[in-house]
Design brief:
This protein has 427 residues and is an all-alpha fold. Helix 2 packs across helix 5 and helix 5 runs antiparallel to helix 6. It starts with a helix and ends in a 24-residue tail after the last helix. The protein is elongated and about 100 Å long. It has a domain of 166 residues. Keywords: Signal.
Length: 427
């Protein structure tokens, strides 16, 4: 009797149990299906990443390569510096020829005296030197712009990866902000590099009088030391050859020899003794240095001209030698620096990047370590470009000096006055 009384409730309980069991089984089936789907997606994603040597970095770059130009990072698009790929490439020699053609009036002028001819020659030397310097600066600025653009694109890829990691919860907002700060810094450096490249190119175009050109992408590597005759030739030999070609020095030397022969050694010796006495009797750091009492010696205009010519000749010789020494040492230093960066530092960075790639593929370091190595290597490429620029400008200044042009010490904006209207004076 009791069995029959509880039977309806028992039947309900059994029915509910089987319903819950069936529901739970259905849920487990769906959960298992979802897990299998997620697992397949995870495996597909890892397979996709594994197809690239540098994993996530190359994958993101490949994705960017498949998107249209309008979908790329618009903040990294160049605006001011644009070139026509079909335009002819402007070599250093073509730039020099265009400048001289623009100043054909200087080539056609007829120099009457030695002084006029010297002035014209130095003007033409200044034109060529300024053009070569502007060409070097413009090409180097373009080379650095290309590197900065690659650097900024790498920073943009890093930011995209950071955003994805933040979205799926692997990263916090603070870590993504750190990456974005690096991106904004790279973008700022790119804008500065573009403006520098644009300004340098426009100065060069103004110098040669034409804009229908395309600049080379890089400066050539520095010459080998064995090919630098400017450093291999002895200093005294260079000085002798330079002074022999210097019209002003030749005039001063001729005047010195003539007037000293007219005056004679006795009068010159007496004059030198009086000068030594006068200088020795004066106190240091005073404006009260006495003048020479001409009544104590036999004084005439020939002696005055002989003194003036010899003093100017000695000052010119000393300054020329000093400029030559400074130019040689600056060229030697820039050559050593550029060679060391090219042959050592850049190779070391390349080896470090390869080692990092190997360690990344072995899962010993993260993607961010690999990105840091690549960014460091690109910074070294900027240093290489700057070192090459310093070397070639030093070589141009050295060659101009040996040809008879005025020398501007390193660190100054050499020959800035000669860019548009070179009127540099001789030594």
């Amino acid at each position: 009797m009791f069995f029959y009384s509880v039977r309806p409730r028992l039947v309900q309980s059994i029915t509910l149990f089987f319903a819950l069991a069936a529901l739970n089984q259905s849920f487990n089936v769906r959960a298992q299906s979802t897990q299998q789907s997620d697992l397949r997606q995870w495996r597909n994603a890892n397979t996709e990443v594994g197809r690239f040597p540098r994993g996530h970095i190359d994958l993101l770059k490949a994705e960017r390569g498949r998107v249209s130009a309008g979908e790329r990072d618009s903040n990294l698009m160049l605006g001011a510096f644009k070139e026509d790929p079909a335009a002819p490439e402007l070599t250093e020699q073509l730039a020099r020829n265009a400048t001289l053609t623009l100043h054909a009036d200087a080539l056609a002028s007829q120099a009457i005296s030695i002084v006029e001819r010297m002035s014209r020659d130095i003007q033409l030397l200044g034109l060529q030197q300024a053009t070569q310097r502007l060409w070097i600066e413009a090409v180097s600025a373009k080379e650095q712009l290309i590197i900065r653009q690659r650097f900024a694109e790498a920073a943009s890829v890093s930011l995209e990866l950071a955003k994805r990691m933040e979205k799926i919860g692997n990263w916090g907002r603070n870590r993504r902000i750190d990456i974005e700060i690096g991106y904004q810094s790279a973008r700022s450096q790119l804008l500065v590099a573009e403006q520098t490249a644009f300004n340098s190119r426009q100065k060069l175009f103004a110098q040669i009088g034409s804009e229908l050109w395309r600049l080379p992408n890089t400066l050539p590597k520095p010459k080998d030391l064995a090919g630098l005759s400017e450093l291999l030739t002895p200093l005294e030999q260079q000085l002798t050859e330079l002074l022999a070609r210097h019209p002003q020095y030749a005039i001063l030397e001729k005047d010195t020899q003539y007037y000293e022969r007219v005056v004679g050694p006795a009068m010159l010796g007496q004059w030198q003794q009086e000068i030594d006495k006068m200088i020795g009797a004066s106190a240091s750091w005073t404006i009260g240095i006495p003048t020479l009492d001409r009544s104590k010696i036999l004084w005439n205009h020939d002696l005055e001209k002989a003194i003036k010519a010899r003093s100017e000749m000695l000052r010119l010789r000393i300054k020329t030698k000093t400029d030559l020494q400074q130019a040689r040492e600056h060229l030697r230093a820039t050559h050593t620096q550029a060679s060391d960066i090219l042959n050592k530092l850049q190779n070391l960075h390349s080896a470090a990047e390869e080692e990092a790639l190997t360690r990344y593929n072995g899962m010993f370091i993260s993607t961010w370590d690999l990105i840091a190595k690549a960014q460091t290597k690109m910074q070294s490429e900027v240093a290489v470009a700057q070192a090459k620029q310093a070397f070639w400008i030093a070589l141009v200044d050295m060659q101009a000096l040996l040809a008879g042009a005025p020398y501007s010490s390193p660190g100054n904006s050499a020959n800035s006055a000669e860019v548009n209207s070179p009127t540099g004076k001789g030594h």
